[in-house]
Amino acid sequence: MSRHILPPKAGHPDVICAAVGWDRPLQTCYAQVCFRTDDEPDEGEALIWRGTEPGELPTPEAAIAVITPYAEIPPRLAEQLLADMTATIGEKDGRHQAEVKRRLFGSIH
Predict the structure, then answer these.
(1) What is the rounded CA–CA span in Å between residue 1 and residue 30?
(2) Prediction pTM value
(3) Where does the source fall among the domains of life (predicted)?
């Protein structure tokens, strides 16, 4: 799994950070935006969180689109995410990952 933490855009004081990455076991990119809340004023709470289902965000561009309204996007972020994806080609789920996927999703694919 990879994770790239990005700073919020100016004009979004309620956003603490955004993150995108690659989740190899779910074969999806993911995107999170953490907002300041009364319960979590410093760390924030991920009120936007996409890429929690297998294949939900299949491309780096899909994940980046989710966070673009909220975060500063580095120029080579899509390339970095693609490299993260490529680095995991051929990796297989371990026994525990496969079991959790069967329980949550009914399959290991």
Answers:
(1) 10
(2) 0.85
(3) Bacteria
